[in-house]
Design a protein that fits this description.
It is built from 25 helices and 28 strands. By secondary structure, it is an alpha/beta fold. It has four domains: about 20-150, Response regulator (Rossmann fold, 3-Layer(aba) Sandwich); about 150-275, PAS domain (Beta-Lactamase, 2-Layer Sandwich); about 285-455, Reverse transcriptase/Diguanylate cyclase domain (Alpha-Beta Plaits, 2-Layer Sandwich), CATH 3.30.70; about 485-500 and about 535-720, Alpha-Beta Barrel (TIM Barrel). Strands 19-20-22-23-24-25-26-27 form an eight-stranded mixed β-barrel, surrounded by five helices. Helix 21 links the parallel strand 23 and strand 24 (about 615-620). Helix 2 (about 50-60) runs parallel beside helix 3, helix 12 (about 335-340) packs across helix 13 (about 345-360) and helix 20 packs parallel to helix 21. It comes from Malonomonas rubra DSM 5091. This is PAS domain S-box-containing protein/diguanylate cyclase (GGDEF) domain-containing protein. Keywords: Phosphoprotein.
Length: about 725
């Protein structure tokens, strides 16, 4: 079955191609119309050559199926009329004519193909498909040529200064054409390239892939691509390129066509292609890959890489019958340091502790940061638990010295919990959990800063159990509250949206941020009950604002666990409608890692939400799932850059390539771009220089209760953001 609905009339047109059928036998006309219509083409027919001439004057047709032997005005007359009047169409002759000379004559006069009656439907459709595809390609080329015809010098300029590298290879793989951008980028002259085999410029490790790409005996039809590294004239430089190629063959009747997919034959002319410089893209992918496995603040392995390392070391320890220690380290009352001195100094403390842990450990040990103030050290190949205790004592000794910063002297207290393989667990989950229990015991019960796990310890004081109880109390005692933080459109100096941020207002522990309990809620199946309470509070505030005529976009953080549940989209839509609110005033924020959990249900929910007008934002971009491919495949609206990137901007004219690159990616994909973590006027001015950007952070307003946010919106004045405050 041939489906030709995808073939359009060229670059500027997406309308289906109109086909005119001309024959003096109505039955044949109707038969042809039925065959072609089933393949997605718009077909009409006329009886006789004279009617064909009238039809061609009244309407444009992309294809004419023409009988030769007709009374009065025959098919050859129609072809001559088309040729003499420069009518833009393609003719396929469908005739019972048996003379070879007649077939040659019509083909010479401009017909694209000659099909002899009787014919099979497949033969007819195959010919039509080839002609239409060739016509579509010709139209595309002609549209480009027409734009360039204004000036021959402009044409040469565009070809040679194209951002892409254009080339042509002959049958043997030698260059017959290169544009100036290719020579300029690689550093060679045209004389050094023309006539040379492509393999002379391919990085040796990529040569096998390049040979397979360019010389494969079975050539896929149309365009194909491969990523290669090219050697510049400066031998120390490599250029990453995405190479696209089209195999070109000479047609029997004249002209050229793309390879039909069969083996190369005597008609094979060569390979035309485009090489696109993706060096920056590859560099960005490397950065994102690093970010996926490392903590951005310290450069240490994160939980992802730690899990891989533990799995490898456990396998080794089992095979060699060795011991392995997991050391769980917590900075005591680190929140107080952050609250007292600010997050900038708090980050410096974290970095200092990371460096200290690396100094106290061996080269083969793993030091990982798994949370705000939590580290895990993996100690493989120890002889006894005393070896692990000795390392822990060394860490405590190092931490006993005060840390001196520009405006503060910090005295640290570390709590360390230890678990040993195989004594305290045979898998990573048990070892980490038991080390967590031990560190909690160290903080709350032990006179020492170090605690070795034993079965006598209970997990009643572990962080997760404590947090589960905290969440249950918050739900049952109505201790959940929602704060809102503004997002400012820097292009138009207006309020773009507000992000809803949940807090637990605990009588014993004060205001607790979501980083302290969301993960536990997901792991303990409390997330649905918790999410329902949070959503009710948000919708109640939205309804109150609506009654006062205030209707900002509200961004709601949704857990990956919730979004991966069947029916979540229906639940959210129903809840919003219960409060008589418009669906399009809400945007849900999801993290990159959502995309690798129950993909089918997640995508179904995302698509259903967007179909109902609810917008989708990717939150904390650059810290999770390490692929960019989903950005143009999912119905996304917003890209939120993780605040760790803004921390690196200390002055307005900082030279940072990541943020501008991400803004360009967002603009190219027509996504809103939000930079989180803007805390200073220099960071604000830095973002202002890039135009299309939305900003969020303490500089514009700290998270605030609903009543305070309402007043903020009513009295919003963008002028103050240009002044230091």
């Amino acid at each position: 079955m041939f489906d030709m609905r995808h073939i359009s009339g060229g670059v500027a047109s997406h309308a289906p191609i109109e086909v005119l059928i001309v024959d003096d036998d109505p039955r044949i006309c109707k038969s042809l119309q039925q065959i072609l219509s089933s393949s997605g083409l718009n077909c009409s027919y006329v009886i006789g050559g004279f009617a064909a001439l009238r039809a061609l004057e009244q309407q444009e047709y992309g294809l004419v199926l023409l009988d030769l032997n007709m009374p009065n005005v025959d098919g050859l007359d129609v072809i001559n009329h088309i040729k003499e009047n420069n009518i833009d169409t393609n003719v396929i002759v469908v005739s019972g004519e048996l003379e070879l000379n007649k077939a040659i004559q019509v083909l010479t006069n401009g017909a694209k193909d000659f099909i002899r009656k009787p014919y099979s439907p497949d033969e007819l459709l195959f010919s039509v498909k080839n002609v239409l595809e060739k016509r579509a390609l010709e139209i595309e080329n002609q549209e480009i040529i027409n734009q360039l015809k204004e000036s021959e010098s402009l044409h040469r300029f565009l070809v040679h200064n194209s951002p892409d590298l254009l080339y042509m290879l002959d049958q043997n793989g030698c260059f017959t054409f290169v544009n100036r951008n290719l020579t300029r980028t690689l550093g060679y002259t045209q004389r050094e390239l023309l006539g040379k085999h492509y393999s002379a410029f391919i990085y040796p490790k990529d040569l096998n892939r390049a040979n397979y790409f360019f010389t494969s005996p079975k050539l896929p039809k149309g365009t194909k691509k491969v990523e290669l590294r090219l050697q510049c004239k400066d031998q120390g430089s490599l250029l990453h390129v995405e190479v696209r190629a089209m195999q070109v063959e000479r047609k029997f009747a004249g002209g050229y066509k793309l390879s039909s997919g069969s083996e190369k034959n005597v008609n094979f002319v060569g390979t035309y292609g485009v090489a696109r410089d993706i060096t920056e893209k590859k560099r960005s992918e490397e950065i994102i890959r690093f970010q996926h496995n490392h903590d951005l603040l310290t450069g240490l392995p994160n939980r992802n890489l730690l899990n891989d390392r533990i799995a490898v070391q456990l396998s080794h320890a089992k095979r060699k019958q060795e011991k392995l220690a997991v050391m769980y380290i917590d900075i005591y009352r680190f929140k107080l340091i952050n609250d007292t001195y600010g997050t900038v100094l708090g980050d410096e403390v974290i970095q200092t502790v990371a460096s200290m842990l690396e100094r106290c450990t061996r080269e083969g040990d793993t030091v990982a940061r798994i949370g705000g103030d939590e580290f895990i050290v993996l100690l493989p190949g120890i002889k006894s638990e005393q070896d692990a205790i000795s390392v822990a004592n060394k860490v405590i000794q190092e931490a006993s010295f005060p840390l001196h910063f520009e405006h503060a002297e910090i005295h640290l207290a570390l709590s360390i919990g230890l678990s040993i393989y195989p004594d305290h667990g045979s898998n990573k989950e048990d070892l980490i959990r038991n080390a967590d229990i031990a560190v909690c015991h160290s903080k709350l019960r032990s006179s020492s800063n170090i605690c070795l796990y034993s079965k006598d310890l209970t997990n009643g004081n572990s962080n997760k159990v404590f947090t589960e109880n905290l969440i249950r109390n918050a739900i049952n005692e109505d201790q959940l509250t929602v704060y809102y933080q503004p997002q400012i459109d820097l292009t138009f100096d207006k309020l773009h949206a507000v992000e809803a941020l949940v807090r637990i207002k605990s009588p014993e522990h004060g205001l607790i941020l979501p980083t302290g309990f969301i993960e536990t809620a997901e792991e303990s199946n409390l997330i649905n009950e918790l999410g329902d309470c949070i959503l009710r509070n948000i919708l109640r505030d939205a309804r109150d604002w609506h009654r006062e005529g205030i209707n900002p976009r509200i961004c709601i953080n949704i857990s990956a666990v919730q979004l991966a549940m069947n029916g979540f989209a229906d639940y959210l839509i129903s809840k919003i409608r219960d409060y008589e609110l418009q669906l399009n005033m809400f945007e849900i924020e999801i993290t990159e890692n959502v995309l690798i959990q129950n993909m089918e249900a997640t995508l179904n929910n995302i698509i259903k939400l967007t179909n109902h007008g609810i917008k989708i934002a990717i939150d904390d971009f650059g810290t999770g799932y390490s692929s960019l491919s989903y950005l143009d495949q999912l119905p996304l609206n917003t890209l939120k850059l993780d605040k760790s990137f803004m921390r690196k901007i200390v002055k307005a004219d900082d030279d940072n390539t990541i943020i501008p690159a991400m803004i360009n990616v967002s603009n190219g994909l027509q996504l809103d771009f939000i930079a989180e973590g803007v805390e200073t006027i220099d960071q604000h001015e830095y973002l202002k220089t890039f135009g299309a950007c939305i900003a969020q952070g303490y500089y514009y307003g700290r998270p605030m209760p609903g009543e305070q946010m309402l007043e903020y919106i009513k009295s919003f004045n963008p002028d103050r953001f240009g002044e230091s405050h």
